[in-house]
Structure formats: structure tokens, C-alpha cells
Amino acid sequence: MKPALRVVAVLLVLAMGAGLTFYLNPLWVNDQVIRLHLWHENVSSKYVEAGGYRLHYFEAKLANGTDGAPLLLVHGLGSRGEDWAELIPKLAAQGFHVYVPDLLGYGRSPRPDVNYSISLQEATLVQFLRAVHVARADVGGWSMGGWVSMKLTLDHPELVDRLVIYDSAGVYFPAKFDAGLFVPADIAGVRRLMAILSPKPPVLPAYAAEAALRKLQQNGWVVNRSVASMTGGRDLLDFRLQGISRPTLVVWGSRDDLIPLEVGKELHEKIPGSVLNVMEGCGHLAPAECWKPVLASTVGFLRAEPPMSGGDKVFPAEN
């Protein structure tokens, strides 16, 4: 075989191998793409011993390597640090030293046999901040992560400068779904979950939907324990919100079907001096799907001197 033909043959074999890998495990391939993007943006993937567990986290500093203002980002139920991928490097570029841990049971952090309550995840964050030697930080929490972040602010105000919550759980509201939504039993369930998370859910081919189903079921026991703890009501914050003393920004997608905007308005009303920013046309995944207005909203609030207090604003979707 001529050298040129050998090169073509090798490239064809590699292409076929890559195609087969994507077909068999498209979510794994997608994860590698996200992680490569973060690495290219100088976002480090690290581990730290915290509270007896080896937690995974992402860290991003200023481009020149100097420290900015510490900013802790906390993901939601069934999620992981990668879900903040659009915002991590951009927040670092705005002068923040960004820390994004995988909560216990999620991402690349361990999955011990525990209850996965909001209180446990809050304690995990306290230990994480100590382990990375951050005495005080701005804190942003998304969905379940917002609940954890609000509880952290209430129980440990000395650790928090300013608080940002995105489409957050934490107070009682009449849900339009049952707990089984988060661990679907079939592909139809995967599509229902995607439809409630986003007003414009991507159309997944069957092989990708099957891969998503396998992944959701693989970590389903952790999610189910988290949901059982949350719905048990012990950590609900309905009657504690007035105790949040840190400047607080409430960010919400106007078309969030999972945790409706009415919940965001309730949080805004009950948290003293809070600011409400609504992302027009966005759903529960606003920090990922509508990251441009979310970024502008977040940076404007965290940089404001004196801190913003009160009021609300609608941000048009720009993505």
C-alpha cells in the first residue's frame, strides 16, 4: 500500500473509532469536550480532602495567576461542576477567583452511604472552604445549590460576603411533578425531564436519550435520597429567610417550569433588601442556556459599591 493510502486508511479507522465511541457513549464524549474547553480557558480540575472526603472541584484565577475576590459556585440536584462551564472562565476574566466543587454524591466527588440532605451538603461546603483556605467568599447557588447556599448564609454568615441564587429551591411550593421526574424509568421520562428544565429542549437522537437514561439511573439512588430529604421538609427555609443579612441577588428564568417565577418573587419579598433579576424567555437552566444576561446580572451585582438593595429588573435573553 502506498504511503498516502496508508495515511488515508489510518484516518478512516480513527474516524470510525471516534464515531463508534460517540455512538456508544455520547455523554462521556460531551464531558471530555467540556473539560477540554475549561482546560483551554485555564480552569484547573483539582481534588481536596474536606470533611473526610476527597472532593473534586474546578478552580479559575485571573489570567495573570493573581487572586481575585473568592467566588463559590454551587450546583444543583443531579448536576456537577461542569454545568457552570459557560460562566467559570468568564467570571474569572471579570476578576473573581472561582471555586466550583462537586457536592458529595455528584460529579467526580465520592458517593458514600449517607442521607444527602441539604444540611449535609452545607456542612460539606463549610469543610471545602476551610480545605481551600477561603475564609470568606461571594456565594452563588443554582436550584438545590441555591437552597444549600441560603442555608450556609443563615448558619455561617461569617463565611459569606454576597449571595446570588439562581432558580433556587428552599421554600415550599405546590410542585407540578412527582419525585420520579429526576430519575426517569424510560426515554419518555428523559424527554419529560428535559422539557420541564428548558423551554427549548434539544432534540436528542435515540442513542443519546438512552445514554442519558443510563447516566440518570446510575446515580439515581443519590438523587432519590436528596429528594427524599428535601421533601421531608426539615431543611425548608420559609420561616428563616428574613434572617439572611447578606446582600442577595435572586436570578430567575421567566419560563422556569420546574421552580416557577412565583417562588423567586417570594424569595425576593422575604429576603430583606434582595434584588430580583428576571431572565426573559429563559427556563430553569438559565445560567447555562442564557449565560450572557446571567453573567451581566451577576457581575453587576457583585461589583456594585455600595451593594445593591431592593428593586427588580427584567433582562432580555441575548443568547
Helices, strands, pairings?
Elements: H1 3-24, H2 26-40, E1 44-50, E2 53-60, E3 69-74, H3 88-93, E4 96-101, H4 118-131, E5 137-142, H5 144-155, E6 160-166, H6 187-197, H7 206-218, H8 220-232, E7 248-253, H9 261-270, E8 275-279, H10 286-289, H11 291-303, E9 312-315
Parallel strand pairs: 3-4, 3-5, 5-6, 6-7, 7-8, 8-9
Antiparallel strand pairs: 1-2, 2-4
Would you identify the CATH H-level superfamily of the domain at 40-171 and 235-315? Alpha/Beta hydrolase fold, catalytic domain
End-to-end Cα distance, whole Å, is: 50 Å
Would you list the SSEs in sequence order as H and E?
A: HHEEEHEHEHEHHHEHEHHE
User: Which strand order do you get reading across the main beta sheet?
Assistant: 1-2-4-3-5-6-7-8-9
Percent strand equals 15-25%
Give the overall silhouette: globular
CATH topology of the domain at 40-171 and 235-315: the name is Rossmann fold
Radius of gyration: 20 Å
Main sheet overview: 9 strands, mixed
CATH class placement of the domain at 40-171 and 235-315: Alpha Beta
Q: Structural class, from secondary structure content?
A: alpha/beta
